[in-house]
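In the design runs reported in the main text, the only information available to the sequence generator was the tokenized backbone. The following block is the verbatim input for one such run; it is reproduced so that readers can re-run the procedure and compare outputs position by position.
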């Protein structure tokens, strides 16, 4: 049975484009499904959950699209400045960051802002939510890497870095994270909060994505896409993906292989088939589409399986209890359980007494 998926991309031309992918044939094809001109400035970020697609822009708004009903769902107006980053946590929450230094936590049930955190003195460049939903990382133009306790919305740890980092990402298992400064990636260990390895890319890095807990796909200001083994701290594969620089990468799993999706300034979105074996071989081109737009960002919308890794921690991931113990050992933060921001609103609400009992049992 063919997979249902759609390629969503934002552009300098203020337009969001969607392409429905036909996976029935050996060579995949992507047919134009929609174009939407809801923004009044270039699009800076895009994210997808099982139901919704969101886009952020220099016009300070976040536009919502309900992919199930195929309708525009309105706009979120909380940021004062460019919306720089967007990330869903499962199906229940969206986090957004902006040039105003704010990180906002949104409920996808009523699309209300549950919490607005003044995260950085300058811009928020990037954010990433831990697979457990208990922590988030942000980097900003104030040259800091900040860890946020999403249980109470407070700063857990601040690390000064010498330069402005522009990307931060948790690994799928949540035991490490990567911070990108220009052409350099620093790999951090969660337990020690220290750098365990550093890898340099030949060009400035524009986008990264973990394919599994060790393999990272890296795109930069050239036409080459590279694969890095974060455990061995070395490049393991590279291939020419486009004619000009690659702006964004995303990925999803099929039955027995990974699909890497790349978007470039040349207007093309390409899908690459990659087998995640011990000895990685260069991926083969599954299909491509020419959007004729100057692309800025990319996300894959797949209603069933693509988002499952963010819904539940992968096998061997740090549980919230273990996470609290590890952080307590570090004597940098105490995890509180009084107020949970990222509660799963997709589940039916229990009576207050039941919730209190559950919290006390977890303690």
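Verbatim output:
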């Amino acid at each position: 049975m063919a997979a249902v998926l759609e390629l969503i991309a934002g552009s300098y031309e203020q337009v969001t484009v969607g392409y429905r992918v036909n996976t029935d044939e050996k060579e995949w094809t992507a047919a134009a499904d929609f174009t939407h001109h809801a923004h009044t400035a270039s699009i800076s970020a895009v994210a997808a959950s099982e139901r919704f697609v969101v886009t952020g822009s220099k016009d300070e708004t976040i536009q919502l699209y309900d992919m199930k009903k195929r309708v525009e769902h309105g706009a979120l107006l909380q940021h004062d400045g460019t919306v720089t980053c967007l990330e869903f946590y499962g199906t229940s929450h969206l986090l957004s960051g902006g040039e105003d230094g704010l990180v906002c936590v949104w409920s996808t049930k009523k699309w209300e802002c549950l919490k607005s955190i003044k995260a950085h003195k300058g811009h928020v460049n990037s954010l990433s939510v831990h697979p457990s939903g208990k922590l988030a990382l942000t980097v900003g133009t104030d040259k800091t890497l900040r860890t946020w306790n999403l249980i109470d919305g407070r700063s857990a740890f601040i690390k000064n870095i010498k330069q402005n980092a522009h990307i931060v990402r948790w690994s799928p298992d949540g035991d490490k994270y990567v911070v990108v400064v220009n052409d350099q990636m620093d790999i951090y260990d969660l337990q020690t909060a220290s750098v365990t390895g550093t890898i340099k890319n030949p060009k400035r890095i524009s986008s990264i994505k973990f394919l599994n807990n060790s393999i990272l796909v890296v795109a930069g200001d050239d036409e080459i896409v590279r694969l890095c083994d974060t455990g061995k701290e070395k490049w393991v594969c590279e291939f020419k993906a486009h004619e000009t620089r690659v702006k964004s990468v995303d990925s999803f799993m099929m039955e027995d292989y990974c699909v890497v999706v790349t978007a470039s300034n040349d207007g093309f979105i390409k899908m690459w088939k990659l087998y995640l074996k011990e000895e990685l071989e260069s991926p083969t081109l599954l299909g491509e589409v020419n959007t004729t737009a100057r692309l800025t960002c990319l996300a894959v919308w797949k209603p069933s399986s693509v988002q499952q890794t963010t819904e539940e921690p992968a096998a061997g991931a740090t549980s919230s209890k273990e996470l609290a113990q590890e952080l307590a050992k570090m004597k940098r933060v105490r995890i509180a359980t009084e107020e949970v921001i990222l509660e799963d609103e997709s589940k039916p609400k229990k009576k207050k007494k039941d919730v209190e009992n559950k919290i006390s049992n977890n303690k």
